[in-house]
Amino acid sequence: MKQTISFIFLCILLAFKPSYAATVVSYNFDDNLFDTSGNGNHASLVSGSATYVDSASGKAISLNGSQHLVMPNDLIRNQSNFTFTVKFRAQSGASGGILGYQNVAATTTATEWIPLINIDTNGKIRVELWTNSGGMSLTSTASVDDGNWHTVVMTGDVG
After folding, report:
1. Residue closest to 97 by CA, chosen among 139, 125, 135, 72
2. Is 90 exceeded by the pLDDT of residue 144?
3. How many CA atoms lie within 13 A of 69 on its CB side?
4. What is the pTM for the complete model shown?
5. Cβ proximity of 6 and 61 under 8 Å
6. CB neighbours (10 Å) of residue 7?
7. CB atoms < 10 A from the CB of 154, how many?
8. What does the domain layout of the chain look like in residue ranges?
C-alpha cells in the first residue's frame, strides 16, 4: 500500500557567501509549481497530476507515494552554504525522501542519490549532509508519521 506524504516548501534558501539569506527558490503550491522567489526555478511533477490541499498555513501538494517533484538541475547539488525549510505531513507508516538530489534526471536510474531530508522506516526525520570529509547525519527522537504538520529546517555552512 502506498503511503501519502503531503508537504509544502515554505521556502528553500540556498545562501552563498558573502550574501547570506539570498532566496534561490520558494514554492508556495498555490495550485501550481511556480517558484515565487522571482528566480524562475519552477518545479515539475513526475508521474501523474498534482493534487493540492489546504494546510495549516496555506496550500500544500499531496503526493501519492509514486510521485515526486523535480527542481531545476544543480539547484541544490554542490552547495556548501544553505538553509532548507520544509513543512510536511505524513500518515502512519509513511517513509521516504522529502528532499534530495541525484546525478541524473529524475526519470533516469541514478547511480548517486543523496537524501538530505527523509523519513526513515521508524517514522523519524533523518537529515544528512555529505562533504569531502565524509557524512554527517541527525535523526529526530520523535516520530513524524502522525498525520500532523511538521517543519524541518536544515542549515549547512561548510566552508
Report:
1. 125
2. yes
3. 26
4. 0.76
5. yes
6. 23
7. 18
8. 5-157
- 121 pLDDT tier (thresholds 50, 70, 90): very high
Interatomic CA distance for residues 7 and 9, integer angstroms: 7
Record the cell numbers describing residue 12, joined without a space. 528553500
Dist. CA 129–CA 117, nearest whole Å: 9
Instruction: Report the distance separating Cα 137 and Cα 130, nearest Å.
Output: 9
User: How many other C-beta atoms are found inside a 10 Å radius of the C-beta of residue 42?
Assistant: 15
Task: Return the C-alpha cell found at 8.
Answer: 509544502
Higher pLDDT, 110 or 94: 94
Q: Please give the Cα distance from 79 to 65 (Å, whole number).
A: 28
CA–CA gap between residue 60 and residue 54 (Å, rounded): 6
